[in-house]
Structure to design on (152 residues):
């Protein structure tokens, strides 16, 4: 029983650390963006279009060259329709990009942070507001490293 409780506590602590890391990357406080790609989506769709697949493969191949990297994946939706549905759609888009990147074979396990649904009407740190609904339907992928990392 004590072993089980210790394991549960360790999982909770690890989950808290991952959430803190994810939020630090989103906020941009402790990490440097090394590489970035934006994938746009058709209305109501969450499938990675062929024209973005080569760009994502190139990013996946380059990411390990940055050493202690992580991939931050933020999904967005345009403001049309129901806000809750847009939140779910932005999550599906982020998940689709995450799955595609993991399947390239270049990304080490654990390097992709949990994809985040940003919903509608939000922007990633350092990003300008989308100029149109077409630009709002996107996933932003960032290869980030700790600011304390001295390489490159």
């Amino acid at each position: 029983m004590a072993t089980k409780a210790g394991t549960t506590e360790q999982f909770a602590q690890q989950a808290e650390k991952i959430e803190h890391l994810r939020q630090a990357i989103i906020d941009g406080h402790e990490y440097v963006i090394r590489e970035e790609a934006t994938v746009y989506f058709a209305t109501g769709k969450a499938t990675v279009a062929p024209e973005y697949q080569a760009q994502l493969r190139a990013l996946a191949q380059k990411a390990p060259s940055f050493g202690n990297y992580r991939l931050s994946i933020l999904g967005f939706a345009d403001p049309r329709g129901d806000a809750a549905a847009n939140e779910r759609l932005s999550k599906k888009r982020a998940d689709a990009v995450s799955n595609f990147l993991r399947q390239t074979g270049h990304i080490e396990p654990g390097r992709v942070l949990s994809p985040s649904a940003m919903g509608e009407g939000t922007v990633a740190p350092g990003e300008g507001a989308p100029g149109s609904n077409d630009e709002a339907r996107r996933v932003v992928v960032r290869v980030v490293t700790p600011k304390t990392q001295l390489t490159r």
Observations:
- The chain has a mean pLDDT of 84.
